[in-house]
Amino acid sequence: MSDYLDKSLLIKFAKENKYKKAIIGIDFGEKRIGIAISDLAYISATPYKILENKGFRLVSEKLAKILAEKEVGFIVLGLPMMMDRNIGETAKKIINFAKKLEEKFNIPYSFVDESYSSSIAEEVLISGVDMSRKKRKKVLDKMAAAVFLQDVLDEL
Questions:
Q1: Which residues lie closer than 8 Å to 66 by C-beta, 6 or more apart?
Q2: Which of 2, 27, 134, 153 has fewest C-beta within 10 Å?
Q3: Which residues pair with 47 in a beta bridge?
Q4: pLDDT in tens, 4-58
Q5: Would you kindly state where each structural domain of the chain is located, as residue ranges?
């Protein structure tokens, strides 16, 4: 198991901030970034928004508004783990993105293995709501963020 997936900071945060601060789930992608938000009781994750990834400056401006509006106190980022539990190039970009977020917003973060979250979200959109491919593309990233954020909330 990778040290990147240590949830001790998240667990500590949740104990100290339940009913006070929300947790945001971020599904980082080269083109799009999916956003999901927890409720303050840490019971449910809701798909919230998809941001076009047009560089850190523009993304961080939009994230700043979301973080303030939703009273976010912790960030959970999906990290695609390889089968041998190591990280690849995409995961390295996500780790770098997380470090930039922490520097800019001073909000703690942790990672969760999101290797199957997009597949699960797509299956729900196909079988659960019978959504067309074109429409799925518009919501998949925020649904994937909600899938792994909900997994995290269920463990708290």
A1: 24, 35, 37, 48, 49, 72
A2: 134
A3: 36
A4: 778 899 999 999 999 999 999 999 999 999 999 999 999 999 999 999 999 999 9
A5: 3-155
Torsion of CA 145, 82, 103, 66, to 10 degrees: -10
Arch. (CATH architecture) of 3-155: 2-Layer Sandwich (3.30)
Q: Which amino acid is at 109?
A: Y
Contact present, 74 and 13 (Cβ < 8 Å)? yes
What burial class does residue 60 get, using C-beta atoms within 10 Å of its C-beta: 0-12 exposed, 13-18 middle, 19+ buried? middle
Q: What is the gyration radius of the CA atoms in the chain, in angstroms?
A: 15
Burial of 33 (0-12, 13-18, 19+ CB in 10 A): buried
For the whole prediction, is pTM greater than 0.70?
A: yes
d(CA 29, CA 33): 5
